[in-house]
Amino acid sequence: MALTLETESQIYRSLRAVFGAIAHLVSLGFTVFVAVIARPGSSLFSWHPFLMSLAFSLLMTEALLAFSPESSLLRPFSRKAKIRFHWALQLLALLCAVLGLAFISYNKYINGKAHFATWHSLTGLLTVLYASVQCMGGLALLYPKLLKNWTLAKLKLYHATSGLIGYLLGCASLMLGMCSLWFTTSVTGVSWYLSMLSPVLTSLVIMSQVSNAYLYRKRIQP
């Protein structure tokens, strides 16, 4: 028996809600897992994996899911409240990322190790720089009149697209970090594969949620 369009739409919304809930749990679980094995405060290095996972796994995931029609934690709130929440989490994520970069850079300095000598470190640096530019670009949405040649709709589309790219860069950096000697020594077997799966899963959910949130806004706007 063929499903009606309304039934199919309801099924897709339910699936997005389920996977969105999974993304919430996975991003939190992964961050807690890294905190447990890193034990922040036990060494100077320990702050790096903790702060980076907090920034790119938990805070950025929640900041992006805030606009999801199905899985946002702020669904009862106004769009203005969601925007403020998004801004707060993104700024906090950027602060954590900058601090994480500072800790690892200083740790390498005092131990006489080379800086930015691996794909993980280079990708991490690029991600932090990209996130900084992305946050500054977000100011254009707060003051769209400063860019008279750009419509607000285009600014939102470009900001969402570039934000998604930044999130994927962050996830790629996390995955490269899980290939490091420290992580592969601390985490082995099935736990390592599950850890690698975490940013992959949240990336897929975020890509779907961002695109659907944009389509949802277009559908409800006159």
Name the descriptors.
mainly alpha; transport
Explain what you see.
- The structure is a single chain.
- The chain has 222 residues and is mainly alpha-helical.
- 78% of the residues lie in helices and 0% in strands.
- It has helices at residues 5-38, 47-65, 79-110, 119-142, 152-177, 181-186, 189-220.
- Helix 1 (5-38) crosses helix 7.
- The relative contact order is 0.13.
- The model has no long low-confidence stretch (mean pLDDT 89).
- It is found in: Membrane.
What is the secondary structure topology, with strand pairs?
Layout: H1 5-38, H2 47-65, H3 79-110, H4 119-142, H5 152-177, H6 181-186, H7 189-220
Write a compact overview of the structure shown.
By secondary structure, the chain is an all-alpha fold. Helix content is 78%, strand content 0%.
| Strand content bin | under 5%
Radius of gyration: 19 Å
The average pLDDT score comes to 89
The main pleated sheet reads as: none
Which structural class best describes the helix and strand composition? mainly alpha
Percent of residues in helices: over 70%
SSE pattern: HHHHHHH
N/C terminus separation: 35 Å
SS field, number of helical segments? 7
Uncertain segments of ≥5 residues (pLDDT<50)? none
Anisotropy-based shape: globular
Number of strands: 0
